[in-house]
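Before relying on records like the one below, remember that each one covers exactly one chain. Contacts with other chains, cofactors or solvent are not represented anywhere in the record.
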Amino acid sequence: MSAPELDLGLAALLGALQGVAEFLPISSSGHLALAQRVAGLDAGAGGHSFNIVVHAGTLLAVLIHYRGDLLALARAVLRPGHVPERMPDTPGSEGHVPSSSSPTDARALLLALVIGTLPLAAALAPPVENLVIAAEHHPKAIGACFLVTAAMLGLAEWLTRKRRRPQEVPRPLQALLIGLAQLVAILPGISRSGSTIAAAMGLGLGRLPAARFSFLLAIPAILGASLKEALDLMKEGLPAVDPLAFVVGFFVSFVVGVATLRVLLVLLVRVGVVPFVPYLVVLGLAVLALG
């Protein structure tokens, strides 16, 4: 029996799933891997390449939502002697939720992002990529990773509620540790946003600054993965998939991602990350039992 094709309906469904799961701390890669397994879509049929495409869709959502911060970071690079004391407030940059945090130094944020990105170099090693692809086909491994994400979120929320004066920007060593958390999150089931937000919160950042740093840190990560995938496709050729399916997946993940990011920021202010913990525990245990 031949494997199902990546048709437009499935592409739209997976794109929507990516748009939701990329920003909610529940692991988009884990959900995509499980959904593709249920649908019978394997990596060779375009599944792995499609994952990169829909991640690029959510990357565009990040670029638009945090455009004010990105402009400030660009000024920090192009005009290092004229960095504004306050980061510019982009309309809706905190999901229309007012922040009580102190002003952020753009230069400190830029340094933290550079340091936090360094651990990703390890992800370029072929053994690491092969490990990720292999994990995508082992539900029990994904289920265990869901439980790891749940534990990280629960611990981070507990530490945050005990802290009175959270930071706005991680210090260099903290940024490196958050970057290591992002590296671990290349495993499906360990949420990239969940692990980095949890690490940032656990190390002293407030909820919204942790989310901002997490999603800004995602930009070089997703750009690097997309570029690597594009180069691989140029060498190996495109998979036998309707290119329109990739376009649909990209567009849907972008639109759903914009809406979900705003919802997440509201939830972080009102309830924190605790509501995602029981969901991940139930899902992880179910996957372990049925996988």
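The radius of gyration is 19 Å.
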